[in-house]
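step 3/5: co-fold with zinc ion
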Amino acid sequence: MNDAAPNAAPQTFYLKDYKPFGYEVESVKLTFQLSPNATKVHSAIRFTPKADAEDNRFFLHGEQLSLISAKIDGTPVTARLVDGGLECDVPRTSFLWEAEVEIDPAANTALEGLYMSNGMYCTQCEAEGFRKITYYPDRPDVMSTFTVRIEGDEPVMLSNGNPTGAGEGWAEWHDPWPKPAYLFALVAGDLVNHPGSFTTKSGKDVELNIWVRPGDEGKCAFGMEALKKSMKWDEDVYGLEYDLDLFNIVAVDDFNMGAMENKGLNIFNSSCVLASPETSTDANFERIEAIIAHEYFHNWTGNRITCRDWFQLCLKEGLTVFRDAQFTADMRSEPVKRIEDVIALRARQFPEDGGPLAHPPRPEEFQEINNFYTATVYEKGAEVIGMLKRLVGDDNYYKALNLYFERHDGQACTIEDWLKVFEDATGRDLNQFKLWYSQAGTPRVKVSEEYADGTYTLTFEQSTPPPPGQPEKAPRVIPMAVGLLSPNGDEVRATEVLELTEAKQSFTFEGLASKPVPSILREFSAPVILERETTNSERAFLLAHDTDPFNRWEAGNALAKEVRVAMVLDGAAPDAAYLDALEKLVRDDEQDPAFRALVLSPPSQSDIAQTLHERGHTPDPQKIYDAAETFTQTLAQQLETSLPRLYAATTVEGPYVPDADGAGKRALNGRILSLLTRLDGGEQAARQYASADNMTQQYAALAALMKAEKGEAQSKAFFEQWQDDRLVMDKWFALQIACAAPETTAATAKELTQHPLFSMKNPNRFRAVMGALAGNHAGFHHASGAGYQLLAENLIALDSVNPQTTARMCAAFQTWKRYDSKRQAQIQAELERILATSDLSRDTHEMVSRMLSA
Ligand code: 0A1
Ligand code: ZN
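step 4/5: write tokens
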């Protein structure tokens, strides 16, 4: 059942309305009597009224709970059940609140609160799931210590903190660190552990475990190593040590997100922790390492210092994403990580920021906070921290961070607290910088240049398109990293960070013997759209000579986009000079394979659509698809004679190791194989498929074959081999849709929704199918409208099962206004159909209304 009748005006929450809770929560003791359909939860909570409370209403959140009894200081009381919780008359002195409620974990398909997944009990409380477990002030600024007793016949019963006792049918846990309820966790089931240990820098031994279903024990070793590396890295780089005797990770199959940082008991979507060479690709390994690090790093940035309210979500998420990106850069390759992150930012955050779902990293209002776990809060939130670090410098950054941990440990904080430590540590005024937190939209920066008498001038004009009817936005502080190259390719000015603070601003460079070639926005020093009139030959020059690896890739990427845009708009042939430049780079064995693979990966079709839209054109998905096909085919032909040698040279021999070097080579090898498959009828790919001993190569071969419509036999074999492995099956589902031609994409996806292994209850499977549909740009946007229809139908069906995942996947429609009027009308009709569904969840209602009101 969904909460509230959302078709009646849903409630909106505002940042400006923040009021502290009127009571301290001194301690929380919870007892769970587990039973699939009737779990009893007894809570004993000591409240003390705050002397200076502005508001002493005693309101506890609670949803989908059956209240059995309530007592204050041992005497039964009658609580008033109100919308979203209960109220009660309480003493003006410290008192013990006790309540007993009953909940139904087996019926909980929303996967929020206490639920069951494959017979295992599991919780997800962020953001507001604890209120589905018991009555409580479920807000992040209420922090308390938790003692938990679990009664049941499950072989393993876990909660936060340290174990304090266990016996036949019961286990007790105590978490000494005060925490908000969203970090509460409980897991119980038939689990086995992969153990490990870590000694902290001050000599404390920490027991580590990864808990999985029997049968998955062999897929934990990589995650365990990643955890140890994360613990060490946080000590080395930030000086932060782990603070409990035990750190548990649990893998669960049914989970709405990637993972969750519950104190001492991280819960992971099994796709983000289980790994083996046979079942996981290089990309899976990299992601798993990053997510394990991310959740672990939350122990300080999120748990020890948490958020005052959910408007401040980017305080913990932006910082933790930034920290996990630093970690991945250190463990693997800094430029490759930066390039991957910028590709992802442009693919996910830029469309959000330029469409109807745009919001600032710190939103000021929401109806359903679950809808704000977005690319803007996470990825743009991290970009803002990257800019701050660039502006104040590394030393000042770590000085400010030390002050942050010293000053705010144990507190629930705001963006103001965060910026204040930087102001205090550096003496810098961050008022203007703060606009990054309060303004939505991606700034555009127009660059022009002048050269005369040895002086080179760069002029920047910034503007952020305001939503219709809103005033022009004030200029922001933009750190613009710039270097200059001489025409012979030498760097004549090393990277310098120019600080843009005005709408229009010029910077001069003196003493240059000739007009330099500028390399602007190095390392993507700010999340902006750069507009600069330049030539393809200058881009090719930077692709060959730039000393900043990010910008070298960027030059190639910009060139690729220009070529593809010209193909789409003017029907031009693929640019010969670009093909030559690509060929040269791909054949250059001196260059890093990972870099060559990235340059050889064309911009995605949705990226081309986005670029066309930014330039005022209406993207035609079919034309974009045709241009991509023609380009790749032409490139394959151009490289024809080199492909067999390149394929052989990039094939990694020997046992599979999921490290960055091997991954880079395999990525390049995979690109080469996909080109080769266009020419050899799939011979090489079939050989690779047959001999592959790891998923990266097996999957690359299968993808190449399926894309060329030559993979039917291998797809069957893949199914036979892996049908019992849920995570590998997700790949099988998704790949068929990703490889389908535009006119068959929706039908392929529809057929897969009829497959016996398709399930609405497993978010990974639903995402594998519907996410692949939305991700196949030309197929999803096929003129028939079949893609839109299929997604809408499935979202309507999913909404009553799992509102959170439904709402998140609705975002596939967010770019609707950029397409032609026929497609707009088709999408609008689907959005209206969703909105008209009776009993639509608050989550989906908010997302669809926001998109329709654009
Ligand atoms: N805090 C987690 C992400 C997360 C957020 C919400 C969830 O359920 C609604 C679950 C997980 C992270 O950043 O990893
Ligand atoms: Zn996080």
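step 5/5: annotate
Residues 294, 298, 317, 320 surround zinc ion (ligand 2) (CB under 6 Å).
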